[in-house]
Amino acid sequence: MKGTMMSFNRQWTIYLAQDKHLDYNWCGTNTEIEVRMVSLLDYYLHQAEKNGRRWNLDSTIWVDVYRRHRGEEGLRRLLDAIRNGYIGYAANRSVLLWGILSTELAIRACYDALLLEQTAETNNKTVLIMENPGLLWGVATVLTEGDFAYLGRGIYNLRAESYNHKRDSSPLFWWQAPNGKRLLVRWDMYEGTDTWGGYAEGAQLMRAADEKWDAFHVRTFGDRNTPVVYQKRQEFIAKTVERYEAYGDRYPISSILLLGIGHDNWTKTDDYWLFIEQFNTDGDGRIRLVDARYEDFFEAAQQEIETKGLDIPTLKGSFGICWEEWAAHLAGLTQNFRQSDRLLRLAEADYALQVINGKAEVQTAELLRQGYQALLDFAEHDMGGCNRRLAAISAGARANAVTQALDIARSRCPVNISSSPMVLQGGVVEAGTFAWRKTQVTFDETRCAVTSLREGDWEWVAIGGPAFGEFVHTRYQSERQRETIFPRSLEASPEAKTYRFSCYRNSNGVEVQTDGERWGFRFATRWFFHSQYPWLDVTYYLADGWSDEAQTVQFCFPLALTDPVYRYDTAGAVLVAGSVAAGGDDLPGANPELFAAQTFAAAHDKSRGVILLTPDAYLVQFGPQAVRATGYSVADIPAQITSLPMMNLTRNDWQFGQGGQRQWTFRYRLIFTSSCYQPLLPICETQHFGVPPYLQVPGQKPALRGLEALDISFEGGPVTTFKVAEDGKRLILRCWNILASPSEGSLKLPPGYASANLCDALERPKRSLAIKQGRVAFTVDAHGLLTIALCQDAVEP
User: Fold this and answer.
1) Residue 702 located in a structural domain
2) How buried is 8 (Cβ within 10 angstroms: 0-12 exposed, 13-18 middle, 19+ buried)?
3) How many helices (H) and strands (E) does the chain have?
4) How far is it, in rounded angstroms, from Cα 33 to Cα 600?
5) How far apart are CA 549 and CA 551, in angstroms?
6) What global pTM score does this model have?
7) Fewer CB within 10 Å: C terminus or N terminus of the chain?
8) Rounded to an integer, what distance in angstroms lies between the CA atom of residue 152 and that of residue 130?
9) Is 212 within the bounds of a domain?
10) Is 89 helix (H, G, I), strand (E, B) or coil?
11) What pLDDT digit, counting tens, does each position of 174-218 carry?
């Protein structure tokens, strides 16, 4: 029957993709790690040149490091090996926490692949997203818009033990992005970190030789294929084939990928190649081993699928987040990371305008590139260390990275954008109960939060649990618990003391301020109820109170909404929280309790809703069950959005002590809407609170002076970037359509530019765009990203 193949008819090919999983900020200083990287690459380049053997780079940062340590001659040597097919690579810059990346930063995570493609004359379409169990659906949009076709996955189920096993048991599937395009994904079901489904699934070949785990030293081994070792390796290969045969029609192809053979170790050895040669010599032809690059497997898999017309499952949805929670271990630095990302986009847009006007400083391009690379270094996946010393080193490396990015962004951002909320200048003293717009507000100065927000017969605030905007700190059992995301909470009380409470009103609105102590923190809040808009700004100031113990900090917003739908935005997608079966976007095996919002989280029923803007912290929770602190009853709360800016629950490696910081500020804006959810509204509202995350949104002026000269008309969503192309010759503009239908747009060609091309997200030209009366017309697919290159020549580049 078409689309199936009985397993006993198959002759198996196993692609052994030798590599080393890179933990760039985890197992030493950057210098120590880079010295090991270069030493390892020296060895495998020699093997490639001398014996034609293959090895793989799990990220493009290897190329950058090798160039810095071995100079241009070393770079040419590496590029030659890539060009000749001996060294394979994944197109991602490093092993990243993709869930904390903005849309633009996620695209930049693959920009180095464009440079490799041009210099090494390759066309790599493979990305690896390893170790972190989480993977948001919008990443599929980002990758497909970058013209990538293949995604390799292997994980460590740390912090995902309670839910990852529920994942759909298809080790090979099409992952269809919100934009309708798809990736071929190879992701086996998880058995362990160093076996099937793990990020080092091929490491059983290492274990067979009794090689111990060592992430700190470069070690060299000769041929270890003794009869005992060889037999163990043969047995692992046989069991691997048995495993994939057992998948039956869920795995209809005859090719298998094993990567991560080197695990976390820094091992120089030729005995895997020798094993491959001996195995193929001794075998009967039913199983063949290939010394492979990552892409060799995917190309073979796709060819077999197409040639035989095989049916591969298609999945649509999100695998959620997991290790993104580690950003809350460095709350202050994470805030600077987010601020830097937004400022850099304004700075690069201003640089593009300077290029148009002939006033650009050449060094600015390199500065901006360094800023983005620093942000990606911060987002590396291991936010911790093997011991407390290495955790501190890792925290310091991230502090260095984000300081670089922020310094560059501030120095090149043309707009002095205030990140502080409005300050009330004088006013009339109010009591704790006051009128605001159409509502009556009751503020509890003991809980430092709102206990009632009534509009006629409607009550916005749910009664019975935390007050609206209440600060809740929870401590948990310290032992690592695999069966739950949040361990059992410990008995505690707020022990609140309010030293100051003030409430003033003037024509701009009502301001409430509190100072005191709560949960062991010095604690202050500032609330501003805007008179002209349905905006409530809340700023929290925390000091001291934090330790290395298992704990969370939450700001809770309980809501009296009926059957709410929760939404939040990520890189490349606006998602609905909740399972696919219940109408959400989360696939089986996704994190059911934690979500990462780039700019907003929202809760709406059929007639009204609340949008929470969260520029400083990623993690949000939805529903009343988010509050686990003792003393709170949440059974009667129908809806709730909770921000979780600080936490420390990993209990595995040594984690950061918040980078040594002891003071934190978190800003929020709540927008109350008397209508059902409107897709464009949250995106538009984000532009008015702190540094704008976008260059332009529908119906509003550009965030940057001078950009209005392009007269961009696009009603489907935000303009995410305007920059000088990586080739330095063109200008790049990108639009994101968040709507469920195609959206048309146009823009005015700037002086000196004669043509425009449609490109993929990595700026490769695809086709020319029509120009009428000096305007470029374009259409962005539903939920898609569109990249346009403006060219000085009338001919396509």
Assistant:
1) no
2) exposed
3) 13, 40
4) 37
5) 6
6) 0.97
7) N
8) 8
9) yes
10) strand
11) 999 999 999 999 999 999 999 999 999 999 999 999 999 999 999
